[in-house]
Every structure is written in C-alpha cells, then in structure tokens.
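Lab notes, practical 5.
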Amino acid sequence: MSQTDNRYEKARIIGARALQVAYGAPVLVDTDQTQPILIAAEEFDSGVLPFTVRRGDEE
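Output from the prediction step:
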C-alpha cells in the first residue's frame, strides 16, 4: 500500500479483506491469527494485498 493511504482507506481495505477471509478466501501470509480482521490487518501491514484505492479526484 502507498504511504498516502489515510486511516479511512486503511479501514475500508482491511474490512473488505476481512470479509473475504471470513467467506473462505485463501490467506496470503503465514499467521497464527484466527480472526479474519486480525489476519487482514497482518496482510495489510505486510503489503501483500492486491487492492488499489481510486479517489474521486483521480481520472
């Protein structure tokens, strides 16, 4: 993720990924966590999530 992600973008990305994990998506990092939100946060911190943030001011 880029350094310009604000806390709202981070929360949206982690929330969306946690929902995917909860519904059975494969986990992208080796972790001991069992809660989807914690797994998603760990994935976000490691930079492996393939999410792109599109802001309204971009074309």
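Observations recorded by the TA: Residues 7-22 form the longest helix (16 residues). Residues 1 and 50 are 9 Å apart (CA to CA).
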